[in-house]
User: Fold these one by one.
Assistant:
Number 1:
Amino acid sequence: MRGLPRRSRGKIRLYVGTAAMNGENRRRKTRTVRIGGFAHVNAVDVGGDSPVVVQTMWKDRLRERDLEETARRIAALGDMGCRVLRFAVPDLNAAEILGRLAQTVSMPLVADVHFDHKIALRCMDFPVAKIRVNPGNIGDMKKVRAVLEKAADKGVPIRVGVNAGSLPRDVAEKVERGMSRALALVETAERELAVFDEFGFADVLVSMKASGIADTVSANRIFAERNDAPLHVGVTEAGPPIVGAVRSGAALASLLAEGVGDTVRVSLSDSAENEIIAAREICNAAAELAGVSGGPTDRLLRGGVKVISCPRCGRHGFDTHGFTSRWLARLYALDADLTVAVMGCEVNGPGEARHADIGITGAGNRVLIFRRGRAVLAVSAGEADAAFADALEAARIEASPDRPATGKT
Ligand code: SF4
């Protein structure tokens, strides 16, 4: 029994007082918190110099009879770049099912718990890798202590998640009297952190989410200047896919380019797979922005597939929309650094496709497949998917001969 007040397990590196703060880089190096790394569960480090971690949340109620299929989908999400996956755990029955799932998958799973500390305690009887719970939401300090003691004992970090829509009453009243929502989020998060400090529990991450872009950016900037807890960044209730991706991109790419944010979740009214694609692209965009502004890029750069596709117009001889929607998830699951061009016609198609590692384009009533700038195959539209799959697998092996296939092409 390790218990409190021990600083709980994990690579905790404090950089208080050594913040790399200047006009362009607001990032204060955070401590590193390890998620998982026990039993069969992967270790994922968040914070410090670790790469920014992409995560998402399971969209459905967990059901016992779906566990096999759920585990299969979790593996596919892992192939796409998801490193941590969160589940809502509304009751003890859900805790049991999540626990059984956690015994079978290597991706670190997170239990999202509200109000009932017994649910958090039960989850930690299984290899559940992180708990999201707010002390203020549990209330009774004896119950909070029980959760923190068990978390310290098991090496389970905790994320405090503050949401602009559910501020404590006194803080909400301050907002009504003129306090900015961003400061209200920070004050609430720091109030929760004070409880962890009181118990000597350091394996804690923080999120402050609002549906507004300005509130999200300001709150995270202010927090990062004053604290060293790793930040989980996201825009809450961002919206339907296009709206949510744009809003999340505007907020999160700015923050990440400044070095603020250690793990990203994009919240969309859409699939977990598309949340992962959006989060990866936001990290890529942030790396490009950081490259321009002199910000830190190392934590954001990641390999993988870059997809270029034409918007389609009246000249198209190949349905780029249908093709990309059929192939997108599979392309993002490829463990290879490849540029893929999907073009509609011979006006711009061959030119773009020639600059990609692999390209496909319409040309009259045929579809051309390009490899490294050369048209290697002309097929009918009906044969295009199969021909592309073969060419893609050849390109993948060439790019990453030692890596196993993950894209299931
Ligand atoms: S590549 Fe061809 S089909 Fe696609 S937008 Fe350009 S001109 Fe139109």
Number 2:
Amino acid sequence: MAVTSWPDLLLACLFPLALLALGCGLFQSTTLSDVHDLVSLKSLAKKTGLFSLESALKSYASYPSLARNELARMRKSYSTLSRAHKRVGYNLGYPRKLDKLQSATDVNSIVTNAIADLAKAEFDLENSTSGSDANIGRVRESLKHFVRDWSEECREERDRMFKPILDVFRKIDVEERSGHKVLVPGCGLGRLAWEISELGFDTTANELSYFMILAFRFLLSSTTTTSSNEHTIRPYAHWFSHQRTVDSVFRSIPFPDVVPRLSSRFNLVERDFLTLSAPPTPPLHGYHNITTLFFIDTSLNIIETIEHIYTLLRPGGTWINLGPLLWSAGAQAKVELSLGEVIDVAEAVGFIFDHEGMDGTRGSRTVDCEYTADSKAMMQWIYKAEFWVAKKPK
Ligand SMILES: C[S@@+](CC[C@H](N)C(=O)[O-])C[C@H]1O[C@@H](n2cnc3c(N)ncnc32)[C@H](O)[C@@H]1O
């Protein structure tokens, strides 16, 4: 039997009912935009389903076979070359290059299989994933996130964007830090949140996608990760474009450069950030700080995201943001705003931008940085990310 995620089930029930009610004229004031909202809700549920535990587990477990299928298609394309061109390819060593791709996916499979096995054990799941779609693209992205967050290879990429953020935290007295509650929504594989906790802050990492969560759990668990650089992946093997040499395509990256663990000052909350509530910390409720890194532009509704950041902060709390405005929800995003508009919304919600030490206008400044970059590739994608510190008034 196909297994369906809860949002799909909910919508499978609600959507036809709502349409029926509309048809019967039960909602007097229903407008076209209400219908549109229902359709968006359905898309949102589908989207959430895409990042569900079942979908992620199935994808990690299916990575070896999906990668084999892809390689079979590449071999087939090669086989359609003319005899003369095949000879050129043979002299170049192209068939051996395809064999190397198989070896690389075998290496990656050791990690993806271990992630799937850990997920089955920790969530008490057997192979109950038959209704979910496997997505090799998201698994490949997660492999690159191991490199971005937890390898020596991407130290420079991390330093560039972490430094302005961590410098804000470093200004706070060491004795005060353990009493400061920090939230990092959309934490990905959690490195920034972990770094903040290592400075002594009481840090909550939050993530919605089980592609990220399962990979992060693989690092956090002492059954799968016990020492630095004990795992190896070949994260660039799946992309032959922009590579100077065959060796650089198949190079191995060891990880993690340090071993993260959950602790009394570092926890992970696995759910939609919009469902979180302010921690009860008398006399004032809420986080002292919320830090968003490459996060706010993944919002379906950026206005709701900014409002929620504001709600979760205690009076006097700070919001640190660094990231671009790549509206990744595509047509599902309610609005896609410019930087000026985002800052307008934040100020309208109540935030006061901190101008101290900022060289840009209206309290933000630009940081050039990359994201899951391959340092040896023949292309470079530089984000002109914006960094700001904004305060909720006391
Ligand atoms: C572009 S990634 C950035 C990850 C990480 N901050 C980094 O810089 O590597 C955005 C992350 O936000 C997560 N995300 C998006 N919407 C979320 C939500 N409503 N609640 C929690 N996480 C969310 C995504 O799953 C994704 O891992």
